[in-house]
Amino acid sequence: MTDRFRILVALVSVCLVVACTRVDHSEELLRDDEVGQGAATRASFEKLVEAYRTEYVARGAHAKAHACVRAYFDVLPDLRAEFRHGVFAEPGRRYRTWVRFSNGHYDLRASPDHKNDARGMALKLLEIDGEPLEQDGVNGPTQDFLMANTPVFFVRNMPDYNSFIANPEDLKSFFFPGWNPFKWRIREVFAGKQVLSPAPASVLDPMYFSITPYKLGPRNIKFAARPCHARPVQESAIAETGDHSSGADSSGADFLGEQLRAELAHTGACFIFQVQVQDPDAQAMSLDDATRAWPEQEAPFVPLATLSIPRQDFSGEEQAQFCENLAFAPWHALPAHRPLGQLNRLRRHAYPASSDYRHAQNEAQIPDAVAYWEAGGGARGNL
């Protein structure tokens, strides 16, 4: 055997070992500096909500609400056994649910609806069975699912998030920190462009994504809510009825809330709640890198439930104030739906920091979501 042949055999052996080594991406890897990163996040969020307060202190993210509306979250009656965990344990189960639609910006003064921004949809399922990882102190066990109308985010890990949140107005320095091109956050630039997208015709039109991963029993998943049916603008409720009394001009600062009010006055809406299941061998399905979406060809969406928003009237200051004082958080979750990854672990600090600070500064209380539902609140619709 010649030396050249021996070298060739050795190289082939190394390549086979590397190729056959299984890399498991299903387990979280904790950082050595997690405690410090979490403390920095909490401090920065308190500064953020104070710095951009108006007549009151708003949320540190998704500050502007278009509405909180009543809905029903119905687990599919024929749900496969492998997905029957947490709130999905009982096929056919119905949960009364509050849905909050919002703009993504942290500054109310910079949140006109016609401006490029992320749009959010947050769900709060009421009266669930089991003990959540965290509760808001008022509403007992709830399961919150938070989503935005993009599958990616422009921050990928704890240090980057804290760098951004400490000075959110200086995006140039965040994306291009210095003259060394190896430190530029190029992929984050493209993700940021995707996040800051033009306003939809209606908040009922987009597909909404969890962006970050979660547990579903023993599996890791990402979830999303897709409209049950495509709704071209010309087929919207306003176009069908010819009712333009809401003044929902797409150039208006509040047109998304006005549009939603007009649409739900005439008809309801529907979303399919669905999940992608992580392939632990797939390099493209990271738990930590939120700048990459999980490819649908490798992890197709599977429907688990429907979200039905009935026809209703949510107008009135009382319901708007109820919406403002509600608290949503990804860690308001059963252990079967535990949030995963670096950004979700930081959100465990950020969301309570925002909620605690704004409620204290506003001298406001988190409202009883079940009691408000049962009392009828400001809604006068068909529920």
Describe what this molecule looks like in 3D.
- The chain is of the alpha+beta class.
- The protein has helices spanning 3-20, 34-51, 158-166, 171-175, 186-195, 237-241, 255-266, 317-325, 342-361, 369-375; strands spanning 65-75, 94-103, 119-125, 143-148, 208-209, 214-216, 219-227, 269-277, 302-309.
- 30% of the residues lie in helices and 17% in strands.
- α2 (34-51) runs parallel beside α3 and α2 (34-51) runs parallel beside α9 (342-361).
- It is globular, with a radius of gyration of 22 Å.
Mass-distribution shape:
globular
Counting DSSP H or I runs of 4 or more residues, the number of helices is 10
Unreliable segments of 5+ consecutive residues: 14-21, 233-247
Q: Span from first to last CA? A: 82 Å
What structural category do the secondary elements indicate? Answer: alpha+beta
Quantity of strands, as a count: 9
Average of pLDDT: 86
Q: Largest sheet at a glance?
A: 9 strands, antiparallel
